[in-house]
Amino acid sequence: xxxxxxxxxxxxxxxxxxxxxxxxxxxLCESQAAEKKLSGAAKTSFVGKCVKTAPATDSAKASQCEKxxxxxxxxxxxKNSFIQxxxxxxxxxxKASQCEKxxxxxxxxxxxKNSFIQxxxxxxxxxxKASQCEKxxxxxxxxxxxKNSFIQxxxxxx
Length: 158
Hints:
By secondary structure, the chain is mostly helical. It is 87% helix and 0% strand. The chain has a domain at 1-76. The relative contact order is 0.07.
């Protein structure tokens, strides 16, 4: 009996954590919709799609950025803008720092180091875009040549 109670408690705690992450993604997506000045059905559709595609790591970063915005006592459009820039900056900084570490591991310096880091960051961004396009193709249930064509066009337009 105690075992069942413990399992239920652990399950409910997990649901609570997932719910809070979803709420953060929801808030971030709503701020993006507000910035795009969407309303009605367009806003509802945008927010729904945004929440489904929002990765958990972005939700964690968004919550950190929201806390920073609250610390700065920002509100409205200023808060939304700050949160979006903060999330984008954190993601870019993470990639750049990983690439810099790789360059240091390879003992690169000067122009060779700068070139390596630029290519590394660009490659990571392309890989992220490709994975997003692959997910979109899977959501559309595309296969074979149609899937490949969709992914190529998606990556090029991104």
